[in-house]
Amino acid sequence: MYSSLRPVAVLCCLAGFIPRVFSDTASDLSAALAQYPSLSNLRQLVNQQPTVINTLFGNNKNFTLLAPSNEAFSSFASSHDRSLPSAEPDLLKNTLSYHILAGGLTYSNFDGPRGITVPTLLTGELYNNRSSGVSLAANFGPGANGQVVLIQKQSDGYVQVQASLLQVNLTALDKQWSGGYIQMVDHVFDLPKNCTETMEDTDGLDALYEALKESGAYGPIDTMPNVTCLGPNDDAFNAAGNPQKNFNTSETNWMVRSHVIPQPLYPDQIQNGLVLQTLRNTSIEVRVEGEHIFFNNARVQSTALTNNGVVYVVDKILARDPTPASGSAPTSTTDPSPSPTKNAADKPSATKQFLLAVIVAGSFSLL
């Protein structure tokens, strides 16, 4: 188990004692950062905001600070039209929280074949509408329930961190101080958004975003905790005949919800042969071939973190399974399964029938 985290909630009860109990935390961090000229902007922020730093770290000795470099501070100021130190107090606190890992980690901890998922101190439903799960609790302790980042060491030895939509570079300092370890990153992390907003901001998912809006499925998906969203890219929609334009609302709703798994599944938790159920009660089988991950016939192209789970951008629309995985019809009364052939008025056009036939045929070809 990695070094565990004491619940941040305890800090709230001790708020009145912070100056006395934790008085050395900010000064210790400032002294540690002083050894690195490329972290001078962060050191200045620490000196300006000792109360915030003391509140975040407390007297715990088992954190890892992903310290934004001076380059990261400049990039943040350019993209947000303001400096990080001038951000509103809540934004500053939440942003710093997302850079603090709930465990003491060094370069040697990043060796996993698909990296490591690590909880941070970022909590609250707006940015962390998810739970830690068994594996994270086993590795980092039951109190480590904050929003996560994904850290992976590449074949060339470089380390990358996935935080929300950003993939940033990590420079391993392995610097110890009284609060744990310090590593350096070259960007300030953006705070996570919900599934729909994440897809809207992701290049190549315009067609999926259109389908989400058309079907109305985005509302439940955005507010539901603990989800994995499979996002077919625009090329996948084009290859399938643009079903987001040709399907009716019920058909589109089926398609969208057949790409949502009601649990967060991070890359290091993926296993070959794993079978998952979607919101539409259909089955998805996971395949791992070397460095590539497949959900049924769709290969993962990239990953993004949302406030309630994870999005995998994939290169195909998953073949539609006409029979629910459990062998029984979905039981939802608010979102019934589509019945496009129930009557003449609802009967799909020849184009739609063709598209459905192609997708269904694709599912059988994978058996």
UniProtKB/TrEMBL annotation:
Can you list the GO cellular component terms from the UniProt entry? fungal-type vacuole membrane
What's any GO biological process attached to this entry? macroautophagy
Signal peptide stretch = 1-23
Q: Which InterPro entries match?
A: Adhesion/Biosynth-related, FAS1_dom_sf, FAS1_domain
Q: Give start and end of each FAS1 domain.
A: 26-189, 192-318
Region described as Disordered? 322-348
Q: Which PANTHER family does the annotation name?
A: FI19380P1, PERIOSTIN-RELATED
Record field: compositional bias (Low complexity)? 322-336
What UniProt keywords apply to this chain's record, in alphabetical order? Signal
* Gene3D superfamilies reported for this sequence: FAS1 domain (2.30.180.10)
Q: Give the transmembrane region(s).
A: none
What SUPFAM superfamilies does the record point to?
A: FAS1 domain (SSF82153)
Keyword Cell inner membrane part of the UniProt annotation: no
Report the PROSITE patterns cross-referenced here. FAS1 (PS50213)
UniProt name for this protein? FAS1 domain-containing protein
